[in-house]
Amino acid sequence: MKTKTKGWGDPLVFAPVIMIVALLGPLIAGLAGVLLPAFGFFPSLGGDQFTFSYLQDVTHKPGFWQSVRLSIWIGVATTFLSLVIVVSSFASQWGRNSFRRITRFISPLMSVPHAAAAFGFAFLIAPSGWLMRLLSPWATGFSHPPDWLIINDPAGNALLIGLVLKEIPFLFLVGLSASSQINVDERLKVARSLGYGRVWSWFTVVFPALYKQMRLPVYAVIAFSSSVVDVALILGPNFPPMLPVQLLHWMNDPALEMRFVAAAGAVWQLGATLVALLIWRIGEALIAYIGRRAAINGQRHRNDRWFRVTATTAMSAVVVIFVLSLIVLTIWSIAGFWRFPNALPSSFTLSRWANNASALWVPIVNAISIAMTSTLISLVLTIACLENEYRHNIQFTPNAMRILYLPLIVPQIAFLFGVSVFLVRYGLDGSFWPVALAHTIFVLPYVFLSMAASFRSFDLRYLQVATSLGASQNKALLFVRLPMLMKPILLASALGVAISIAQYLPTLLIGAGRVPTITTEAVALAAGGDRRLIGIYAMVQTLLPAIGFVGATLLPRFLFPNRKFFR
Amino acid sequence: MSDTKTENALCLENVRLFHDGSKLLDLNVTIQPGEVVTVMGASGSGKSSLLNLISGFLPPSFSYTGRVVLDGLDITHADPADRKVGLMFQDPLLFPHLSVEENLLFGLPAKGDKTERCEKVRAALGAVNMAELGHRDPLTLSGGQQSRIALIRVLLSEPKALLLDEPFSALDSGLRDKVREFVFAQAKIKNLPTLLVTHDQLDADKSGGQIITL
Amino acid sequence: MLKTLAKNLAVISLASSAILAGTAYAEDVNPADWPSVVKAANGQEVYFNAWGGAPNINAYIAWVGERVKAEYGVTLNHVKLDDTANAVNRVLTEKAAGRHQGGSVDLIWINGENFASMKRQGLLIEQNWSEQLPNYKYADVAGKPTLTYDFTVPVDGQESPWGMAQLTFYYDSAWLETPPTSLEALAKWVEENPGRFTYASPPNFIGTTFLKQVLYGTIADQSLLRAPVVEADFDEVTAPLWAYLDRLKPNLWRSGEVYAADTTQLKNLLADGEIGIAMTFNPGEASSAINAQELPQTVRSFVLDYGSMGNSHFVTIPYNANAKAGAMVVANFMLSAQAQARKADENIWGDPTVLDVNSLPAEGKALFDALTRGPATLAADEFGATLLEPDASWAVRLEEEWAKRHVRSN
Question: Which of A86, A259, A98 is closest to A176 using CA atoms?
């Protein structure tokens, strides 16, 4: 067998190795940095005895089991609710105009950072929030906000809905890209021509194949929601909070002993996420079993109007609530005194924007620099890996592809704490590069997944033509393949930038507060809730990735103004 | 074989091609400069793989024995970029992000300065009465125009042989005759050994050379 | 487009080189030789770890940064904390990791149990540096005992005074005519106005302070608070405190299911009319917020009749700080009449000064004389007695006990 290049050590062959090391290295080191102290072993902190006592002690902290239960519940419930709403919308609206309309709204919402969405949602539904102001006093009779516990409720319902709101756009887009890989229309045609109802057809012949494609992203949602920190700080319960928030408090506790407790807690977090995933797996099996039996019992289920109306309403409500949340953020960012229950502030002012312009500058520059650096690294690695696939015919096996999802499925707080322990040990914490590299762990999977399909479906004959015209492989890559793939590359970059800008924990734990970004600054404001300032920070947080996506859409047309190909 | 016979010729010496162990074809043929040899066969007969073998793009699931010799040089294991084998596919595959002129410049070897190279490209376009197309977006050209530009691009790269992979099958029949005539004429003018792969009997007849059926 | 990309890349490389350059410094600094300190400080970057929850305070810190940059060439970076314990923890971790110089924290806004904890664990500069700062001579050491004893722990020149605090309540006089000024009246008012009162959850400082305030008002023997907690008596002496809080709880805002996070949230809740009485540690906060259009003009302040918790807050330098000279220069500037007067200005922050204004040279005194008092700020004679902070161990135990009683454990 012949390979296409001669054996003169093409550096590209190292790309997959570098990529796997970049993803797994910090993960393994971080887990070690958590597991060792959790079992009492961490000499530089004075622990040299192997013990289970920390893992036990931590369970005696007030509210510990409630924290654990909350994490599991939020992880499973968020994912279930989001997925149900998304697939119901697919089943009811696929191929219809309303589906296209929803799609147009959903994509930009995906780029809104979690923290910004959570703030907007809180400002909307709090007892003193915009909804109540709009309805008071004429409909509710309230002249003071009602004493209702909506935000930070102990059961975590506000948190749950806030997360659902934010995960729906993600799962929707995942579903959309999965749909393009299975022949949805053909499948539906077959089932419908056999007399099955529209919704039922979708659930029986499309959903099983679709879900198979969506499974890993769904697991990522479970893991994320069961270990989320920023949204939980904003919307979640306090007494006790979700386990990850509790962990963050312990990690910040001045007592030396608490390092071990926090590490032990992180191990419990791993366990909680694992339990959430297990519960989900059992649910999967159960639904598959019931679904298979229901699919073959011959019922046609043609009367599904009620279902379609409900699903369409739910999906539209999500979009409307999300958009209203962004609007109320904007209003607060320019509000003067705003007495309850006035629907709008009595005056508007830009003075706060002006006053905070200088304070915003550093976090914005940091956020953009980190986002561009981590995205650039991810792009180079991704392109190198995908080009290597072509040159050396080495494809990632499905198992290797799963490695990409590992950093998205192992809870961030569990291993980043371990990484930070090592970084502090060597005095590397709190500087730019560790933060940018930590971001890369989470940016890289998204960049790779978003680019892989278009890279792999690229018509290789263009490269053969270029090579047979005398171009080297590198020239063919740089002047033919990359320019022709400019659109997917730019979109992947914009996605990478959006992912990086939204990162809270890596910036906080690895940056040690010394590399403030717009997101860490915004979340830091959560506790006190100066709504005008939060409005400003959340707006900036939302605008940065949005600018990235607009730029990614416009840049090809700008660089190649007369090319049909880029229109 | 004598030197006079292989000079500028494309020789396939005892080429046997296997896919996953099973033999696809067995060829021993010399294509003289200016001659068009046609290979015909059903899909799956290995005719496209033959072109991949000659141009250096054979996927690793294939294996082969024998030698490919071009202009007296054994290119069997050469880097694809060094083989000097021009390729034309069913689709013109003009680079859509480059203008017509830039596509041609991409094909032209990096000899001479910028103005000289541009001159050459314009001359080549002018010679076939397409000078006014230079600044056009390739995707705005007709199918026939695209095919002809693709051929000029190949010829500008100064190949020593031409491989045609069903280059006319995407064109409708009226256009097909014109483009075919154009391609064969250009190959003759440049005196290139040409290997045509097709399943269209008319292509084979018009080539006027040896026909090998797999 | 390409230009912005290039610019951003330049920013990235600048940022990274700044990081590399920032790790070189670690010499001992002698504040007695002030000119040498000023000289060493020039060009240093000071990482100031300070609570970042109040925009007006952040803006003031940014102003300090501009001034020390202009006057001394010191770059001040405000690391915004939600809990000062984070900074303490950082220094502690660095010590444990053997990073005895070039530490990441140069200056911390601190007092009370955090100071006590750092001092106890040897995380502070050993020498008495703060009393040697040139501006320390104007500090009102005689009139303000909290400048030398921070929560009963001797300061020993290991932290430099920055400001004064006194627990102050405020309310909207358009809604509530006469505020309750005794614990009993407060409890009654809460019972009559369910859902309209809350406090911040400890360990937030205002929450912990409220616990101490109530403890002072309910404990039989106040002198117990001057000494460390005696574990055996703790339950007994604090029983009235918990009884009082339990009495409030059913009628608290959100029925005590959640509490406010900090003073900023209390302020917002009052602004929205969710609660009728809020509290702050900064007597000038209400007026300051009226100026900023955050509170209505009708807000007024009051204190409880048996005195109010008062203390001082400080800045301190960790033993392993990377920019000690720079940090001292900043601490000294913060003590200057210019900086203290601006801090006391209710349009800026409204935090009372630590200086003895009468000891200042004429031009410094003039800065203070020019300040006006807003409608929601109490006059000096309305403040009543100052209750001194209990021993730092009380805060720790009160916070633990509160958590035990208020965090659901089932």
Answer: A86
